[in-house]
Amino acid sequence: MLTGMRGLAGLTGILAAALHFAGALKSTPPGAAMPVDLTAMAALGLLATLPLLVAGHHWRLDATIGPPLAACGALWLWMVLAGAWSPSRGILAAKLPDAVLLGPAMLLAGMAVAGHPRALSRCAGAALAIGTFVAATIAWGLATESIVLGGQPGSSPELLRVQYQIAGLAIASAAALAAVRAAEARRWAARIGWLTLAGLLSASALLPGGRAALAALALALAAAPAIVLWRAGRRGVALLWPGLVLAAAAAVLLVVQSDPPLAAGLRTLERLSQGEVAEASGRLPLWRAATEQGGAALPWGLGTGGFTIAAGHGERRALYPHNHLLEALAEGGLPGFVLWLAAFGGGGAAAVLLGARVEAERAARIAALTLPVALSVMVSTDLGNRMAWLALGLALGLGVTAEPRHVPALRQAGV
């Protein structure tokens, strides 16, 4: 029975990773060529295994995650209520189910995966494999001129359109996980091998064009391995490691700024050399509009999905504020702002506190999987994005512990 449960947990972890990075997988030629939708396939698989995993275990929740979980529930309820005065119909009908129906399911899945050692181990392993696969296929696609990085859908029908932001997040998590494996390795050969893979993945992050993903890479790569090093008593290396990562990133940017032609072919660096990042990406006008429109609609906000209409963009969901906090303020008013801070900000604070108490390998893997998404929600995605809710579930899962159902019974019997 234990073997079967371990296998079920491992499968659940793999499916969670596949669903988390389904957008990146669909940006690869093999993923795009599949006759079925990878997102739907992973979601259906997770829907089949997750209830069995939950039913087959006894779950203990740390009190620390109680307030963020309560804030999540209140935020979902407030989004439903705020839909009553929203001027939107199309965006509201699409966004609300994503947030209040899919969001809780993703949160639960993340918590279950993070709370079960086998599930988390397989999830991290699958994420490492996915990121490596995505990096290799993008490099090959660019070399063979068979893909296009971003652009309008259908603008180049003969080429595969890569969702470079999501691909960059997958690569960032994979690079951080490889560096974590290097920090954990006992032999120098293994350390060098994992560091080489982390370096190659970091270099491949310069190809897709996602500037936020590059920042996410630096954040995850600096933080996740340092957790393992610090907890292993290698304090000097732990303190030095983030500095080395950030220094390497700064050196690359400095070289490119001093000689922009060096960035030729490296789409991420080409976009960085264009000048003002926030203005060039179009985010700054959206942030300004969210602040202005949200301020004018206080205290209750514009209503769920109402930002794009108020900003003059019509029913175009893609022109969301590109910042969860500003979105919560603009559409949910002061209640939405406070509840988002309590849910996501409180979840981050709880993860830091709990991460200091759980096993180092567990905390490091969750950091590698969640930090890229944590940065992404401040510059991209809306509140209906499943990656945000799954990442929050993983972070809160640091306060969850799973045991097979027969174990508590044996302990009560004194066996």
Automatic annotation (TrEMBL):
Keywords: Ligase, Membrane, Transmembrane, Transmembrane helix. Residues 200-341 form the O-antigen ligase-related domain. The chain crosses the membrane at residues 34-56, 68-87, 99-116, 123-142, 162-181, 188-207, 213-230, 237-256, 337-356. Pfam families: Wzy_C. One of its GO terms (molecular function) is ligase activity. It comes from the Bacteria. It is found in: Membrane. It is a multi-pass membrane protein. Its main location: membrane. InterPro entries: O-antigen_ligase-rel_domated, WaaL-like. This is O-antigen ligase domain-containing protein. It comes from Neoroseomonas terrae. The lineage of its organism: Bacteria, Pseudomonadati, Pseudomonadota, Alphaproteobacteria, Acetobacterales.
